[in-house]
Design brief:
294 residues, mainly alpha, 14 helices, globular
């Protein structure tokens, strides 16, 4: 088993790298005011920095094992941030739920990565991209695909694992916006896009990925219509958008999925003023639409 630390920047990686840095810049600016009078702001920004570092590692890793290490660091840092208000039981429960769901998916992902390395003879992503035919014809292809898909589905809140994302909106507003609308939940979609030259192009890919994305899209859209809390509206609409991206990848439209990632993420900063009252009142998980009427 060969593990190396390297960086691989291609158009797919550049899309999410832009999201992580561009959106992260605005969220950190917003968080300065949000935490102005908070005695725990050092712990808060420490967690945000670990998360941003870990997401950048996922995006740029050239080796599957290194990607998995950063993948788990993202889960760990999100656990700390979702449960930032540790004196509140709902925040603690939401943090634990997110950790368990994404952690279980992470174990499946690791197994998929190891099988993929066995089938392709390498763990280097750049080398894997040239061995798609060999992987798709290998006897391990189906378990590889299903294990990696399970990891992607849990991280990107695909149905039936979508429930952890709305619950995680118990986190402080900058965390809710950055981790769970702009970056962390895009990691699973990014993984599928990154490995689509290796895994896509088969009947099982189209017949599984496309319906999963479609069901997630419709479920998120329907549930968002039932919400009055702005954070929950944002959460369920994000679930729906993630379903759209997954569905596009399922039907083989990677450029469209990448465009959807950028459009969805760059729209997040415009939502910050609408959530400002929530930040000033410091009521995590509660920002009613009716409270914004003037």
């Amino acid at each position: 088993l060969q593990v190396s630390l390297g960086f691989l920047l291609n158009p797919t990686a550049a899309v999410l790298l832009f999201v992580v840095t561009f959106v992260g810049f605005f969220i950190h600016l917003f968080a300065v005011e949000y935490s102005e009078h908070d005695d725990s702001r050092g712990r808060f920004f420490g967690g945000m920095s670990i998360f941003m570092f870990s997401m950048t590692g996922i995006v740029l890793s050239s080796n599957l094992i290194m990607m998995f290490v950063f993948w788990e660091l993202v889960g760990f840092s999100s656990y700390l941030l979702i449960g930032f208000n540790s004196d509140q039981k709902p925040a603690r429960e939401a943090a634990l739920q997110a950790l368990l769901v994404t952690g279980a998916g992470g174990l499946a992902l690791l197994a998929g990565f190891l099988l993929l390395g066995q089938a392709a003879g390498t763990l280097e992503i750049s080398a894997l991209l040239a061995k798609g035919d060999a992987v798709r014809s290998h006897p391990f292809y189906v378990p590889i695909f299903l294990l990696i898909l399970a990891g992607a589905m849990t991280k990107s809140a695909q149905f039936p694992f979508h429930f952890w994302l709305p619950n995680a909106m118990q986190a402080p507003t900058p965390v809710s916006t950055y981790l769970h609308s702009a970056t962390m939940v895009k990691a699973g979609v990014y993984l599928l896009a990154r490995l689509s030259p290796v895994l896509a192009g088969t009947a099982i890919w189209e017949n599984v990925v496309t319906p999963v994305g479609m069901i997630t899209m419709l479920t998120g859209a329907f549930l968002s219509l039932l919400q009055t809390d702005l954070k929950l509206v944002l959460a369920y609409s994000t679930v729906s958008a993630l379903g759209v991206m997954t569905m596009m990848l399922g039907v083989g439209s990677q450029p469209a999925a990448e465009a959807a990632v950028m459009i969805d993420a760059t729209s997040v900063p415009s939502a910050l003023p609408a959530m400002r009252r929530d930040s000033l009142s410091k009521k995590p998980g509660r920002c009613s639409a009716s409270s914004l009427r003037s």
